[in-house]
Design goal:
23% of the residues lie in helices and 39% in strands. It is of the alpha+beta class. The chain has a single domain, classed as Gcn5-related N-acetyltransferase (GNAT) (Aminopeptidase, 3-Layer(aba) Sandwich). The strands form two sheets. The protein has an eight-stranded mixed beta sheet, covered by helices on one side. A two-stranded antiparallel ribbon has the order 5-6. It is globular and about 50 Å long.
């Protein structure tokens, strides 16, 4: 008799409403908005090396740019130390292989990365705040992103950034090689993940 395996992954989708007048004075430097791999290649290569050399990530980044997604970068002393990807079309929930089409006024932020020696120094919150101001100036009113329930640093950071509720829980079940996606609507405080 074969060995039975069961794998379960949960992803929490949350959103942030952007309020306030458009900040038309917010202008990001031309090299802060990145639409091609070359501008962040060194940081991508570093990330691949730290994650045991997953070269598929490089292909995935190229695919994102080809689909029209872009990233905003955080620089310290003219060196890229972090980035976050933005999609204006689809919210990708990669861990559970679910996509959500974005409505007008919505944007998705995903795949946030900060160089290890700059973590815990406020780089991501600063980049996120700049991104929010920049997106509001471009007419966006809602940011969607997903958080993994085991990533407590991410949960705490997003609480500080103003995210308050989990709106959807997506599950991917794998059993005997079969995959089953389930989504259930919820409205829970994001703080509930900390318990």
């Amino acid at each position: 008799m074969g060995h039975l395996t069961f794998h379960h992954t949960a992803v929490y989708l949350t959103k942030l409403q952007l309020f306030g007048p458009p900040a038309s004075t917010v202008v990001l430097a031309p090299d802060t908005v990145v639409r091609d791999l070359e501008s962040i290649k060194n940081l991508i290569d570093e990330r691949i090396q730290k994650s045991s050399g997953h070269s598929r990530y490089l292909q995935e980044v190229n695919r994102r740019f080809a689909m029209g997604d872009y990233c905003l970068v955080q620089k310290v002393d003219n060196e890229v130390v972090g980035y976050l990807f933005i999609s204006e079309k689809i919210a990708h929930l990669a861990p559970v292989r679910v996509k959500r089409k974005l409505l007008p006024g919505e944007v998705a932020i995903y795949d946030v990365y900060t160089r290890e020696q700059f973590r815990g120094k406020g780089c991501y919150p600063a980049l996120f705040e700049s991104a929010c101001q920049w997106l509001m100036a471009r007419g966006y009113t809602t940011i969607w992103l997903w958080v993994m329930p085991h990533n407590m640093v991410s949960v705490k950071t997003h609480l500080k950034l103003g995210f308050r509720h989990i709106y959807t829980v997506f599950h991917l079940y794998q059993f005997l090689g079969m995959r089953l996606h389930m989504a259930r609507k919820v409205l829970l405080p994001l703080e509930s993940l900390l318990k």
